[in-house]
Amino acid sequence: MLTDSPYLISLQDVEVSYATNGGRHVILNNIGLNVSPGEFLSVVGSTGCGKSTLLRLILGAQLPTRGQVVVAGQPVRRVNRDCGIVFQKYSLFPHRTVLENVAFGPLLERTTICQQVMYTPTYRRIRRQSLEAARAYLNRIGLKPDDGVKYPYQLSGGMQQRVAIAQALLMQPQVLLMDEPFGALDHNTRLEMQELILEQWQAYGMTMVFITHDLEEACYVGTRVVGLSQHWTDDDNTPGVGATVVTDVPTPGGHPKPMEIRATTEFTTLLEHVRQSVLTADKP
Ligand SMILES: Nc1ncnc2c1ncn2[C@@H]1O[C@H](COP(=O)(O)OP(=O)(O)OP(=O)(O)O)[C@@H](O)[C@H]1O
Ligand SMILES: [Mg+2]
To answer: How many of the other CB atoms lie within 10 Å of CB of 225?
Structure first.
């Protein structure tokens, strides 16, 4: 156990593989990754290389076939309450209002199933408090009080993602995991959301693990960018050796960066380096 480790997240020699007919399909291979408290780690890689799998390992929703994942000094064995997660889509309950969606986590955590089913006075009191806390969060993520009574289908994609972020933040996670959270948004909304998440990251001092297909987004929001290789399926379709970390670089420009950094040579050189490493990585 790494109780003395300076890292908040640590993956050591991690492998994830699945049994196939007569063999094993290796997805992640020999992943070694350490993340310090307060880092904003962007993870990029081709589709299917294992980015979401990596996130599930940190969350504790999946265990590695080999190696160890340690979060906050504890080996991860089950879903970790200290990790919040935001997905690309479908994070919200469609039949609950915005406020109910945001308040759901604390309410579930602070009440028993019996209190919920019986609708006891304690449950009602905690529900009122949770809704109040949720209302305060709406403002912080740029939603109006009126938005609280709307249902997810009445919101734009960007607003829905704001609610999903508030839902995760209200649980005050040490680590916020984001799996392509802005992938479904149009370009301008995406830029707004990048600024929003940087503000929240600064305000709450969280550690972020942020997956994206967009290399420019990765280099802009992250303090550090990690690229995974493809899993190198062979030409005859026999499974390859699994994805591993092929690049791990800090980003220039301090943090949060000015928008204008995207036009600098330093930034475009980094972008090109990450692109080359991830998309054209040769078989080992
Ligand atoms: N239960 C499973 N059994 C077998 N293979 C699986 C299973 N779950 C995932 N995989 C395989 O693991 C690989 C990695 O999946 P993962 O979802 O982590 O990729 P990803 O990098 O997030 O892809 P994308 O960019 O498309 O979201 C894929 O090839 C997928 O088919
Ligand atoms: Mg994925």
So the answer is: 28
- Assign domain 91-172 to its CATH superfamily: P-loop containing nucleotide triphosphate hydrolases (3.40.50.300)
Question: HSE of 175 in the Cβ direction (CA atoms, 13 Å)?
Answer: 25
Determine which of 37-41, 112-116, 134-138, 253-257 has the lowest per-residue pLDDT on average. 253-257
Q: Ligand 1 atom 16: the closest Cα is on which residue?
A: 50
Whose Cα sits closest to atom 24 in ligand 1? Answer: 47
pLDDT of res. 20: 80
- Record the tokens describing residue 161, joined without a space: 């993602």
From the CA of 93, how far away is ligand 1's center (Å)?
Answer: 25
Q: Which of 27, 155, 14, 139 is nearest to 71 (CA)?
A: 14
Full-model pTM: 0.90
Contact between residue 130 and residue 107 where contact means Cβ atoms under 8 Å apart: yes
User: What atom of ligand 1 comes closest to residue 55's alpha carbon?
Assistant: 18
Question: How far does residue 231's CA lie from ligand 2's centre (Å)?
Answer: 14
Ligand positioned closest to the Cα atom of 242: 1
Q: Give the pocket of ligand 1 (CB within 6 Å).
A: 18, 27, 45, 47-53
Across the strands, what pairs with 208? 40, 176
Per-residue pLDDT, 2 = 47
CA of 55 to the centre of ligand 2 (A): 9
When mean pLDDT is compared over 48-52, 208-212, 228-232, 261-265, the highest value belongs to: 208-212
Q: How far apart are CA 27 and CA 30, in angstroms?
A: 10
pLDDT digits (tens, 9 = 90+) for 191-219: 988 998 998 899 888 999 999 999 999 99
**Which bound ligand lies closest to the C-alpha atom of 19?**
1
Strand, helix or coil for residue 54 = helix
